[in-house]
């Protein structure tokens, strides 16, 4: 599936810099709502992909590149808690979470063998947030 109207990085960056960054009450709730929405979207994708893996018998599908982020042990932390922890300790701005989700979505589109599942979700997510933070917050 291809994007019909892809957003150019310069347009996305311009839109993100227009995001209000003042410290009034309206922006203090923004991180929790962005985190909740992102966690919900990722939880649904993970559940769907984990069910599909069980249905096909956990057969290794794809090449080594699509399994590069898989861990041997699943982290015992929900996606919601993981994102809240990143926000608490790194103070990542809400637009970074949105860009990270876009990166994950594009990664899955360009690599059809890659499925976000419980074995790779946390590693993919922290990597996407790090790259998105560099894109959004670095001048």
UniProtKB/TrEMBL annotation:
GO biological process: cell division
SUPFAM superfamilies assigned: Cyclin-like
InterPro entries: Cyclin-like_sf, Cyclin_PHO80-like
GO molecular function annotations of the record: protein kinase binding
One Pfam family from the record: Cyclin
Keyword flag Zinc: no
Keywords: Cell cycle, Cell division
Protein family per UniProt: Belongs to the cyclin family. Cyclin U/P subfamily.
Protein name: Cyclin N-terminal domain-containing protein
Organism: Ensete ventricosum (Abyssinian banana)
